Each structure stands twice: as structure tokens, then as C-alpha cells.
Amino acid sequence: MKDWMGKIRTLSLFSFLVIILSACGKDNLTALVPKGYGAEQSFNVIIISILVMIVVFVVVMAIYLYVILKFRQRKGQEDHIPKQTEGNKTLEMVWTVIPILLLIIIAVPTIVSTYDLADESEKENSINVNVTGLQFWWNFEYANEEIQTSQELYIPVDERIYLNMMSSDVIHSFWVPSISGKMDVSPENENTMYIEAFEEGVYWGKCTEFCGDSHSLMDFKIVVVSQEEYDQWVNGMENTDPEYTAEAATAQEGQELFENSCISCHAIDASANNPVVGPNLADFGNRTKVGGVRDFSKEEIVSWIVDPAEIKPGNGMLDAPYLEENSIGQEEAEKIADFLMELKATDEPVDSVQQFKDEANDN
Amino acid sequence: MSTMVATNKKGLGATLWDYLTTVDHKKIAIMYLIAGGFFFIIGGLEALAIRWQLVQPMNDFVSSGFYNELITMHGTTMIFLAAMPLIFAFMNAVVPLQIGARDVAFPFLNSLGFWLFLFGGIMLNVGWFTGGAADAGWTAYAPLSTTSIGEGVDYYVLGLQISGAGTLIGGINFLVTIVNMRAPGMTYMRMPLFTWTAFVASALILFAFPALTVGLFLMMFDRLFGAGFFDPAMGGNSVIWQHLFWIFGHPEVYILALPGFGIFSEIISTFSKKRLFGYTAMVFATVLIGFLGFMVWAHHMFTVGMGPAANSIFAVATMAIAVPTGIKIFNWLFTLWGGSIQINTPMLWALGFIPTFTLGGMTGVMVAAASADFQYHDTYFVVAHFHYVIVGGVVFALFAGTHYWWPKMFGTVLDDKLGKLTFWLFFIGFHLTFFIQHFLGLMGMPRRYWVYMENQGLDLGNMISTIGAFLMGLGTIVLLINIIKTSVKNEKVSGDPWDARTLEWAIPSPPPFYNFKQLPLVRGLDPLWVEKTEGRKGMTPAEPLTDIHMPNNSFLPFVMSLGLFIAGFGFIYQKHDLSWLIVLFIGMGITLGCMLVRSVKDDLGYHVHKEDLKKEAEE
Amino acid sequence: MSEQDILNPKHMPHDPEKATLEGKNKFMGFWFFLGGETVLFASLFGTYLALNDSTNGGSSSEELFGLELVFIMTMLLLTSSLTSVYAMYHMKNHAFKKMQIWLGITVALGLGFLGCEIYEFYHYIHGEHFTMRSSAFGSAFYTLVGFHGGHVVFGLLWIIALMIRNARRGLNLYNAPKFYLASLYWHFIDVVWVFIFTVVYLMGVL
Q: Where are the annotated coiled coils located (chain C) (predicted)?
């Protein structure tokens, strides 16, 4: 099975790539350049179905063009009455049976891969992450490691990770096109899917179930790292300290402000015991993005704090008392930003993140 | 418009009263056409606003809240308030004529169906003026819809409930009309394909709409009366809504598409001057599509987490629909084969439909493959797919039908040059808009996205898509100009301007209010064609000239619908203030009162006397 | 057929409800309508079955339902279905008075059923504090059974209106289809109740 699918894939991949050339979309975002197990399985079925369908389309169009060109009414033939045919049993059999055969060609790999992608046999021995979707961000709790993080899910390369997903408000959907197809995140049933990435890097994740005002801004990332880096990162996360004190002077002031206005919703350590209210900020200093969508920089953090509605309309932070009291201005926000940027699980960002940030700066 | 000219003698007030109280299927058809056309333009403007917002990354043409209202109302308006009534316009205008009937089975209910639709449609749009229209998507998935702030979703629920009741009534009406009212000799297997598709679509309406009715009731109870069907905190389950919605929603696709197929079947046969190839297979395929349409709803829910068994079953069932659909495509092609193809505007739409719908069908099979759908689902790929199906299959058909049956409805022929211009603008615009969206979806653009980010490779595709949308808008404007021009010119045509084949062309354009002076004797498929090939000019009557029984006009349907419209406000605003219950009771009182009047007051109709018919013929 | 033939027929056919085209249309249209109603109730039953365990910590079906009252209600409604059959039997024999009497008995039984249902709901709401807002189960229960109850109310009003309207003038080809459809509607209500009795009450208690 795998063998001939592989052959078809390489062959068709080539022709397909030629057709749409560079129009495959952005690397690590597009589903057309799969870099994970789920995405690859889906891509195989996509290619098989496209090939079959192109055959059908070519046949239809050939007949179509032929009849239009051949049987168009000519000048002076307006009174010509063509032969009134009722039908043709043989022909009708042909175009009933052949499509059935073609559909079987698509249906078999579809069913095989559908079952394959729902396989939970390795769940017990794999990394399990409890994913929570909220308007408009994501929380990731590592079940065995007892740590949690938000917005950026770190996973080791070539390893099957099981995601147990639930929403705490409306329905969301978890989609990282380059790694895997999507799965809904519903408020009443836990859905499980697995992901496995083939290459290190930072992958774009999107919410694909309409969930409100900032549905289009509910981005997240999957950071795929080497096993070694992963272990370091988990270790760093486990050692994040709720009692951490800031180093720089401005950051210390920022911490004080943070403790007055922010800490009731945002934890600064990665313990899984912290309630999921606002995004966990334990590893905030190594984030690739601010709010999931803006480039990571102090200015962006400040503008987020000062006016979160501007970046993500309708997000949960709009209820924060400091906004109503107007107690945090530009200056205070800068201090808080200094503090937040100090919060790191690992002193240096993992390679993937570093590379991602470098590329972002080049743009 | 031409009918206006005919009735102008009566004065505006009398004409208006005539239309408010009419039970004549031809006038109701015209009202459906105008109202549906109006909502089509509203929905189109919403579409243009959506595309303009997406013309460049991180655009700020509209706010996210308003954008969500736009996409919700665009979908809802186009499906329920444009496509459905326009299909009903042609069903009303044509089906009774095609089967040789003087009216539908229930003229009163026909009128009631229209007014319910119209008041429901208005109700849906009231939200715009009371703090925001519905904003939870046309699918209104709970709990997003049940927790949506304001009254927008309430208007959605009440509006759809009212117009849905109208649709259901219309469906039953056409079922009975087609079963009971066929002219002598019009057997089932001699019915024109449009009538067949209208029949199957009506059956689908009958069995699909009640599921929506229940879904809407549950949502109404959740939002307005504190029930907990979809509220996880009360033990509810939001997936129930999805099931109910799609048990209705998938057949809905065929409710729209099948009559579209019917329209194309008539046009292709007429303008290739050939009887429909494989008529029996076409009928069989129509029925099969209708049947399978009920078995596949969960393919909209592959990512809900139903498990691989359910996903596989629904995937295979869905793919099976491609077979009867393919049969249809090939039968159309072989109707053209060997014909004498005349390419005018209606035919051009039909010829444009074949490749477009084939593409839509292809992507349909692709999205049916569950494991591949994990990538397509809720992305622009799906947006592209269903627009290929619904615009390519339904809107093209509506444009085609408008040009084809305009003479029958109004007695004039729409300008062919302008018609062709409409086609090319719309056709090119359509493919520009939607073809690229397949790729946008696979490149990582989910649907219902208010903005997309810079540097994600999505800019060019979206720009092209927006340009295409405006071309479609331009095409629609040309059609409007065409309608005005044709109406002003008002050049009357004969009853059979296309040298066509079916019964509606055997009587004058527009037909007299009693349609057939004497019911025709049908002697085969394409009855008019049968007579023509035997050298006769028209149909042979099946009965002597006798008095014709006609139904009375009635104002009750309008008032009855108005009552529900009023009650709708009571339902909604009692959630803030219980004194609004008075409005609810008044509205329901009006409607129930009308029903009582209708039940106890005898309404036997009247007769057109044969002496008058003879006199009319002599004039 | 002229108005006179319909309102004062010289000769009543055996099936007066289907003697005119209008009657035939109504007969068929109503059957289609009942087909739609079946889907409506099927959807409500489906919803109920999905939610009947979702009590959210509140009252469950085992705690609430008692079969005695429901059994009486079932008997009332089943009997009323039978009496409406008698009414239709007399309609076909053109015995208008007897038809009215049997319809009257049908209405009385229907009112009895409705009284029991109102008592039942009152008991749940005030005695057990079990309402539509208690849990998803509560919502599903009241919606399903309430929809049926609403149908009963409508059916009763319909039959009563027809009885009063035609009390003086008797049976003709114009009102015969109306009586017939009202009785058909009544049978449908009865069938739905049999399912409610089984699915909601019997399965709820067992």
C-alpha cells in the first residue's frame, strides 16, 4: 500500500508542483508542503482524488468542446430538425459503472487513512498535551510533565504527540496545516488527535471554527525542536519560579505593577496547578509573537497592554479592571514589558524560535 | 414592467390591492421574483463588502463585529431569501403550466407561503437597525450563537422560522399540485424535467425543513426562555444543533440544485432541438440524488470528532452522490450531441454551467474524502467548492431561467446582446473570484476570517478574488439595465418565442389568469413538440369548453403573516421586559384569528362562464 | 360542480371527504403535512434521547415519572382516537348528529388528557422544582411533551370550531374534508403520544 502510494505521490507531487509552481503558499503554513504525518496522509488522498478528478474533467471537457464545436447551428440550417434520440443503454451503463470504479479508487485510501489518523493505540506511551481553546487563545498543559504554557506548543521532532482538546467557551478548531489536518475543540466532548512533525521549525496554527470577533486572530504556533532541546525546555519550564523577582530596575517596577493588575489572571510559572484564566506567561520572553499575531518586540507588548482591543477585538483581557481604571499608561506598560521579557524557561530561545525571529527581522 | 402595463387600467391602488390579495400562481411568481431579486442584490452588496475587506492583508474597511454580521447575513440572505424564493418564482410560474393545470392545488396557501417568506426575510434584516444583525455565521453553531450578545441571532431565529414555515407550505403545495392536478395524459414519465425536479425538491423540503424548525425552536428556547439544549453548563450538547442544522442543511443544497438542473434540462433540450437524452435515467438520477441527499449530512462534521467509522460511512455515502450527478452531466452532453445548438443567452448560461458545475462536483468528491477534508474543512477551499456548486448550479440556473421564461412571465424577450454581456461578465468574474480560493484554502486561509496577515502568501489570491467579485456585480447591473430597457420597449412576443417543447409554450405570453381555456390532452413527452411534429399549431383540447372554476382572492395570508411578524418582536423583546408579551399575544392573536376565519368562513371560489370565454376569444 | 352541489348535495357519496378535487387535494396535502410533522417529532425525540441523561445534578426521569397518571392519560387519548373513528364512520354514513356526538366525546376525552398533563406539569414545576431551565433534560422533556400538548390544544380547538360552525347546517361536500382532516390530525397526535409514552415514560422509569 505504502509503496505505490509513495510512487504516485512523488510522480504527482512533481507535476502538481510544476502546475502551481511557487504558488504553494508560505512554508510551515501551507497544507501543500506537508511536513508532518497527518498533513502527509491528507495530502496523499488529496493528490489521488485530484488525479482521478482531472481524468474525469478532461473526459467531460473533451466531449463538451467537441459537441459545442461540431453541433452548433449553422447559417441556413435554422429549420433543421435533428434526430430525436431517447437514450443509449450501453453508454448509460458506461458512465454509471466507470465513475463507481473511480470512486472506489478514492474511497479505499480515504478509509484507510481516516482510520489511521484516529489511531489511539500509542496514546499511553506518548506525550499527552491537554489543549484548551479559549476566545481567542490556546492553553497547552503537558499531562505527565505537569507544566503548562500558552500560545506556543513545544514538541520534539519525529515524535507522536497526543492532543486531548476541549474548549472552555465556544467551539474552536485546531489546525496546523503543514503538520496535520484539523480537529474541533468543543466545550462538551474531549477530542483526541495526534500530531507528528518531520522537521524542526516554527509552524503556524490557526483556529478554523468561527468563534467570534477575533476568530481570524486566534493564531498559535507549534515549535518543533530536537529531543535534546525539548528536554531542556521542559526542565526549564518545570523550574520556573512563582516567586521570581525581576533583575533590571525598570523590570522590578514593572513586576510591582504586574502584581497589582495582572497576576490574578496571568501566572508567571509553568505549574499545571495554575488556573487557566489568562495566558500563562512563564516562558513569555521566548515567545515568537505577541498576542499570537504581532512581531515580538517591546513596542508591540506595550501597545497590547495599553489597548488590547485594538489588536484583538473582543478578547478576554478587555474585562481587566486596569483598563477601566485607566491605571496603566504608556510608561507603566513599558515597565511591565521589561518585566515580561525577562520571563524565560531557557536563557536562550530554542534554535527554531531563534531562526524564526531572525527571519521575521529580515522581512 | 409588462404586467404593470396590463393592469395599469386599474390604477395603482387597485393593482397593489390585487397583488396583496392575489392567489394567482403567476402573480405570486412575479412577487417571488421581485422579492428574491431584491434580496439577491442585498446579499450581493454584502458579498462585495466582504471582498473589499479582504482586498489586502490586515485591512480595516469594516470592524470585525460588522464583518461577522456581513458574512452571516450574506449566507443567510443568499440561501433563504434569494435562492429559495427565486426557485419558487420559477416553480410557481412554470410548474402549473407545464402539467397543464389552471392553478396550484392550494392557491390560498401559495399566497400564504409567499407572505410568510417575505415577512420572515424582513424580520431577518430588522437586526441591522436594532443594534446589529446576526453574527454567528449562517450555520449559527452553538454555543457561539446562543451566547451572541444583542438581538441579531434572535432575529435570525425568528426570521428563519417564519420564512421556513412559508417554504414548507410551498413544498406541500407543489407536491399535491403535481400529484393531483396533471392534465389528462400527463403521466409521471411524461412530466418535463423541471417539474420532476420541482417535485423531488418539494419532497426534500417537506422532510428537511422540519429538522430546521426544531433546531430553531431549541435555539429560541435557549436564547429567549432559558433552556439549556446547547449549554454545556446545563448538561446540554452543542453538537445536537449541528446535526439538526445539517439534516436540514444538506438536503437544502439539493432543494436548490435540483430545480436548477431542471431549468438547464429544459433549456438544453429546447435549444439543441432534441428531446432530453436518457430522460428516464435523468428522472431516476434526480430521485436518487434526493434520496441520498438525506444520508450524508454528517460530511459537514468530519472534524467534530465522530470517530473513524462514522466519518468513513458518511464519506463513502457522499461520494456515491457523484454517480447520479455524473449521469446527469453526461446526459446533458449527449442531448447536445447531434443537436442543432442555438447559442443565445439562456443556452449560454447552460453551457457555462456544465464545466463550472463539473468543477464543483469534482471538489465535492474531494471534500467528501474525510481524511483529506481534515485539511479542506472550514477553509477557503470549502468556500470555493460550495460557491461552484451553488452559484454554478443554482445562480447560473436562475439567470438562465430568468432569460428563458421572461417571455412567458411578462410577454417580452430580454435583450440578447445585453444578456450575453451579463453572462460573460458574471462568468469570468465568478471564476476569477472562486477558482483561486481553492488554493487560498490549502495555503492556510480559514473561512470567516476578518483579516489575514501579511507575508503569508495570501495577498495576490485575495486581490484577484476581489476583482472577480466586482465583475460579477457589474454583470448583475447589466441584467438590471436589460430588464428596464426591455420593459420600456415592451415589444410583445408570441406564446412560443423559442420554438419550445413543453406545455407552457402552448398558451399566450403572459397566459390568461385561467391558463388553459380547455385542458390540453397530453400525448407524449414534450407534448407541444409532439403536436408540432404532427403539423398542428397547438394542443388538442381534452374537454369541451365549460365554465372554469377559479379561487377567490384573499387578504388573509398577508394579515396572517403580519401577525407572526408582530409576534416575533414580542418573542424577542420579552427577554428584556415581560410587558412585551402583550405584543406576542397580539401578534399570535391576529394569526390564529385569521386561521379561525379561514376555517369557518366558506370560500368556494367563483366560475368564469363559458359565454365570457367565447366572447373573449372573439375580441 | 356548482356551489349548490357542494354545499347542499342532492346525493351524498360514500366518501364525502374525497368527492371534490379540493377535498382530494386537502386529503393528500394533509398526509404530506403529517409526513413533515413526523420529521418534526423525530427530531424532538432524537434531541430528547441525546439529553435524557443530562440532568445536570437535578431531578432525573426515574425520580420524576410515575406511571399511574401517564397510564390514565394514555387510556384517555387512545379512547379518544377510537371515538373519532366512530365519528368518521358516521360521517361516511351521513349521520351528522351521531358524528357530532362522537366528536363531542372525543373532545371531552381530549380535555381530560389535557387536564392531566397540566396537572403533571404543575406538579413537576411546583412540587419537584423541575422546569425547562433546570437542566438540558428538563428543556428536552418540556419541549417534546409540550409540543405534543400544544398539538392537542390545537386539535381540540380545531374540532370544536368545526362542530360549532357546522352545527346548524349539517354535513356537505365542503365541510366533510375538514372534519376528516381534523380526525386524521387527532389520530396523528395519538400515535405520537404512544411513542412519548414508550420513549419518555416507560424507558424513563425502567
A: none
